[in-house]
Amino acid sequence: MNKKLVSALLCGAMVLAATTPVMADGGAADGQKIALVGKSAGNAFFEIAAASFKDTVEAEGGEVEVVYPEAATADAQIKVLDNLISQDFDAICIAANDVNALQAKLEEAMDAGIKVSSFDSAPNKDSRQVFVNQAGTQQVGQALMDAVYDISGGEGQWAILSATSQAANQNAWIDVMKSVMEDEKYSKLELVEVAYGDDEPQKSTDQTAALLEKYPDLKVICAPTTVGIAAAAKYLQDNESACKLTGLGLPSEMQEYTGDDDAHSCPYFYLWDMQGLGTLSAYTTAALVKGDITGALDETFTAGDLGEYTITEADDGGTEVVLGEPLQFNSENIEEMAKLY
Ligand code: RAM
Predict the structure, then answer these.
(1) Which of 100, 113, 186, 331 is the most exposed, fewest CB within 10 Å of its CB?
(2) pTM, rounded to two decimals
(3) Residue range 295-310, pLDDT digits in tens
(4) Closest C-alpha to ligand 1, atom 11
(5) Are 112 and 184 in contact (CB under 8 A)?
(6) What burial class does residue 3 get, using C-beta atoms within 10 Å of its C-beta: 0-12 exposed, 13-18 middle, 19+ buried?
């Protein structure tokens, strides 16, 4: 090599070294290409989780593509998956719009050597290697049922305003609520209807209005969806309804509706650590790609600053990693928490 060429190359290398951001060398996601698939577009819930997921993977040396289906359906997610499988992704982490309908497609992905994890909403146990559960399914269902009991005074009519009728996570929580309700303690509560707002604000508003019209004595609506609860909260509050609300919501979307007095439609509601959900999902997926875990029971791994996690058995017989407990948001903490998510 002649001298001029050597010095040009050296110079280029120096410029590159000076302009390339410092990457965590050998980070937990080093060189990995991961796709994150949400249930639907335009939902702040997925945007918040995706931002933490992306930040985590990038800080650990990998790349993330966040993809949303055209609609909150399994068919629309199958289209997305088809497209992802034809590219060179190391892993897909998905929040499922249906428990069983994605199985063939996710098995195809795994057969093609792509690691498959899920977060928020689990496809069945054969469709994934591991599920990142934001808060135990039982715990969420129990917390919601107890909130309905408490807010209603232990008796009267109540209804559920859910997301889509196929949503894997909402259906799992609703099943737990129904089984908790079999206990004698809840015998004076009557679940009159499970309505579906499809995680669309307008449809959720319309469904809330329809519930109030059909059941004028309705005491409580429980909406285990951030989109549904925000729409119902506004409708009930604007109409000064006597019907109260609880469920799962984002503090930032619920702040103006949360309070113990008549002026607010929602005394309290639940969710979980949203940034933690994105971060834990990222580390879990990266650990699958790295080969640190396979998704089998009792395996352990380190999720950065969140610490060490152990893979446990999920209710559906597959495996999961549980982030933590459901968190309650009420008039005391809503202002602080709304700043976070
Ligand atoms: C909506 C989605 C999501 C669910 C939350 C509580 O944003 O349906 O899957 O986890 O609500």
Answers:
(1) 113
(2) 0.92
(3) 999 999 999 999 999 9
(4) 225
(5) no
(6) exposed
